[in-house]
Design goal:
Elements lengths: L3 E7 L3 H12 L4 E5 L6 H6 L1 H17 L16 H25 L3 E4 L1 E4 L4 E5 L4 E11 L3 E3 L12 E2 L1 H4 L8 E5 L3 H12 L3 E5 L11 H13 L3 E3 L3 E7 L4 E6 L5 E6 L1 E4 L3 E3 L32 E3 L10 H15 L13 E3 L4 E6 L2 H6 L4 E7 L4 H5 L6 E7 L5 E8 L2 H13 L4 H5 L10 H10 L7
Parallel strand pairs: 1-2, 1-6, 2-3, 6-17, 8-15, 9-10, 9-15, 10-11
Antiparallel strand pairs: 4-5, 5-6, 7-16, 12-13, 13-14, 18-19, 19-22, 20-21, 21-22
Helix pairs in contact: 1-8, 3-4, 3-6
């Protein structure tokens, strides 16, 4: 007899493990199937967590080289890349084991292996040594995504890299090219640039970070150029191939001329695609769209109403926190509660130095829907905390309805932007106006005072600029 569950989650990433834990908390007998051998998905194992570790460590190395300028005398600063990678791997291990502990604490059955659908209630779980069939009243698909590549180009993770390979290089490349000017490529470019690589970024558009507020994007580009990253905008990659010396990249540049670039490694960072291989979706009639995403209704149900899909396999930003919100929502919907995700207020963060963060609408989006708005801005150059620690780059930008004053969007480039955006996410969730923010006392001296001043600036009454 196969074991029976109330909920079986296929995929143990941020969407899946959170859904499994919440389902069990709600009294549902729950299992989670994961093929990787460790929980946490791309985010914990080969994405968010290891990249943030390397971003922090590379920034520390970069800052240490300038200690003498601020009165800290040291000996020669040397890079031990092996130890740096060990530190990164240690953080990953601790966190993935932490999720496994949470499964035990919350009585979630953890099944190691690959899950595939036999019918709308039966799942085959198989690994190298075993096969078993389990049954469930409800099934949640949360198998995540994988790195997309260029047509005809496959990753070898040594010379032609996905983000996974870029997180595990054994030496600093002399010259590194990144195809794609989005979040992942710029974060990885920042890491290896700080560690000594000459980093070039190729982007088909005339700007970086597609979808980001254009004013923030332009400021971001200026800062990254100042840091030493080199950009080839309005440039299309024609061909990438290996040579005895490294990698050749043929491009059509902004002047429509063919140009050949040589480098040691190339990171292809052109987005991600849903991972739904070997699930047998077609066999049971679950439909996908032209991008391979599973189609769901507002309650995350597929064409089979007891089978749900969440996270990177469905439409929406491929962000761990978006996936987690969906995991909780589905668990609560299955248990008869009112699960909810506010897709208008999913914050985004780029963890470079300085950080970039946003929530809500950009100016371009507001113009597109003919929404009237006011703008308030405040530079970190005028923020006392930022000046005191010599991190004066960037600004806060608040967009508010020109009639009601309701905050419609917030965009920050500057120190600790990823933490500061949470204040505005909460404020916007409760429908705050810019005046509400302006009349809220912020501690001094803090970076968050720049938010208060930007809110004051919406009505042209900022104090410190």
């Amino acid at each position: 007899m196969s074991e029976k569950f109330d909920v079986v989650v296929i995929g143990g990433g941020p969407a899946g493990y959170v859904c499994a834990i919440r389902s069990s908390q709600l009294g549902l007998k729950t299992a989670c199937i994961e093929s990787r051998g460790s929980l946490g998905g791309t985010c914990l194992n080969i994405g968010c967590i290891p990249s943030k570790s390397l971003l922090n460590l590379s920034e520390a190395f970069h800052e240490a080289q300038s200690f003498s300028k601020i009165g800290i005398e040291t000996g020669d600063i040397k890079l031990n890349l092996g130890k740096m990678m060990q530190n990164k791997d240690k953080a990953v291990t601790i966190l993935t084991k932490g999720v496994e502990f949470l499964f035990k604490k919350n009585k979630v059955t953890y099944l190691k292996g690959r899950g595939s659908l036999l019918d709308k209630n039966k799942i085959l779980v198989e690994d190298k040594n075993n096969k078993q069939t389990i049954e469930s009243k409800n099934i949640v698909i949360s198998t995540g995504s994988e790195a997309a590549s260029l047509p005809g180009l496959s990753f070898d993770e040594e010379k032609i890299l996905s983000s996974t390979g870029a997180l595990n290089m054994s030496k600093v490349p002399r010259k590194m090219f990144i195809v794609g000017g989005g979040y992942i490529g710029l974060e990885m470019g920042s890491v290896w640039s700080r560690l000594g690589s000459e980093v070039h970024v190729i982007e088909t558009l005339d700007h970086i970070t597609p979808g980001l507020d254009k004013e923030i994007s332009s400021e971001f580009l200026k800062i990254l150029k100042k840091q030493g990253l080199k950009f080839h905008l309005s440039t299309k990659v024609e061909k990438v191939y290996k040579t005895e010396k490294g990698i050749n990249i043929e491009v059509i540049d902004v002047n429509q001329k063919k140009v050949l670039h040589e480098c040691d490694v190339v990171l292809v960072s052109v987005g991600r695609k849903p991972y739904t291989k070997n699930l047998n979706l077609e066999k049971i009639g679950i439909t996908t769209d032209s991008k391979g995403r599973i189609k769901v209704n507002k309650n995350f149900q597929t064409s089979e109403k007891n089978i749900y899909a969440i996270g990177d396999v469905i439409e929406g930003p491929m962000l761990a926190h978006k996936a987690e919100e969906e995991g909780i929502a589905v668990a609560e919907l299955i248990s008869g509660q009112a699960g909810h995700v506010n897709y208008d207020l999913i914050p985004g963060v780029i963890y470079t130095t300085p950080e970039v963060a946003y929530v809500g609408k950009s100016e371009e989006e507001l113009k597109k829907i003919n929404q009237g708005y006011k703008v308030g801005k405040f530079p970190f150059m005028a923020n006392s905390r930022a000046k005191a620690i010599n991190k004066p780059e960037g600004f806060v930008k608040i967009l508010a309805d020109n009639k009601t004053d309701k905050v419609l969007g917030v965009h920050i480039i500057g120190p600790h932007a990823g933490e500061m955006i949470a204040e505005m996410s909460v404020a916007m969730e409760f429908g705050a106006s810019s005046e509400d923010i302006a009349r809220t006392c912020h501690a001094h001296p803090t970076f968050s005072e720049a938010i208060k001043e930007a809110a004051l600036s919406v009505d042209k009454r900022q104090i410190h600029s």
